[in-house]
Amino acid sequence: MKTKITELFGIKYPIVEGGMAWCSGWRLAAAISKKGCLGIIGAGSMTADVLQENIQKCKDELKDIPFGVNIPLFNPIAKDLIDITVESGVKIVVTSGGNPSLFTSYLKEKGCIVAHVVASLKFALKAEAAGVDAVIAEGFEAGGHNGKDELTTMVLIPELVSRLTVPVVAAGGISSGAAWLSAMSLGAEGVQIGTLFALSEESSAHENYKNYCIGLDDTSTMLALKKVSPTRLVKNDFFKEVISMEDNGATKEQLLEFLGKGRNRKGTFEGDISNEVSIGQCVCMIDSIKSISEIIDNLVSQYESAYRNLSNFALD
Fold first, then answer.
1. What is the mean pLDDT of residues 187-193?
2. Domain 4-205, architecture per CATH
3. In what order do the strands lie in the sheet with 231-234?
4. Residue 197 and residue 107: Cα distance in Å, rounded?
5. At what angle do helices 177-185 and 292-309 cross, to 10 degrees?
6. What is the pLDDT averaged over residues 38-49?
7. Which of 26, 92, 106, 176 lies in disulfide reach of 58, CB 3.0 to 4.6 Å?
């Protein structure tokens, strides 16, 4: 398959891994890149030293196969993470959660390809003006941090495609080849996948987290924490406490204090599912934990099948 995204990143399939905190370590990134997609190390949960270690292990495993690093710009150590990424020779950087004008020029000067994650046209235009090479447009179906305006992938993608000159990668709710094909039909040049990869064998998430998420249905998640940073959460005990605090008028500061206890690490990485658990809406479509090799093979097969079936809907 040849798209602007496959050409930009030097990959076979236009599939980009979501840079998920506590899930996207080097093993997951390397496995995805080996299958012809773009593996991404999620630096959001890492110190500079841990990121450097993950980058080196990924490079050792992949040799010349491309991979990237995701850096949330709201992270207090974002500059340190960027410096480590550049010094380590990584040439693909996905930024998110902040102003892309802060580091895009610097990264481009260092020879990096830069993509930025957005959740609305306003911020997509700002990213393009900052000089990014691509935007990743994330509908609010996605897990993790999200857009407060709750724009769906189906609405967001065609709007951005019609207004931007840089290629658009679709994200949010994509867990099958048919969904991948749907995003391409809306004008996307590729897709970003998070939830499906988070529940893979190679994901660094705890087995308790994976097994718990496999049992969730289509009503198991909801967007919360809009006063802080909109986040799609599983409706567990932690979620109920957050909603109770919000309903009782908790301030942003009070919510931040509640969140500042390693909740996401405990839920995702340590497997305490009574804590913060975040996953995308499409979790209801996933019924087992598979290897990345099997997942990507299935995606390609499903895409091809869905593409062939479209002939049944020809207008003539």
1. 98
2. Alpha-Beta Barrel (3.20)
3. 144-145, 231-234, 221-224
4. 27
5. 50
6. 97
7. 26
Which runs of consecutive H residues, i.e. helices, occur in the chain?
Answer: 4-9, 26-34, 48-62, 78-87, 104-109, 121-130, 153-163, 177-185, 195-198, 207-214, 237-247, 252-259, 263-264, 292-309
Report residue 39: phi and psi, to 5°. Answer: -75, 145
pTM of the model: 0.96
For 233, the token pair is 């959460």
Bridge partners, residue 116, by sequence: 95, 135
Kindly tell me the burial class for residue 288, based on how many C-beta atoms sit within 10 Å of its own C-beta (0-12, 13-18, 19 or more): exposed
In angstroms, the first-to-last Cα distance of the chain is 27
| Ranges of each domain in the chain | 4-205, 207-281
For the segment 159-176, what is each residue's pLDDT rounded down to a tens digit? 999 999 999 999 999 999
Q: Which residues, other chains included, contact 168 with Cβ-Cβ below 8 Å and sequence gap of 6+? A: 124, 134, 135, 136, 137, 157, 160, 161, 187, 188, 189
> CA of 154: how far to CAs of 111, 135, 179, 304, in Å?
33, 16, 10, 21
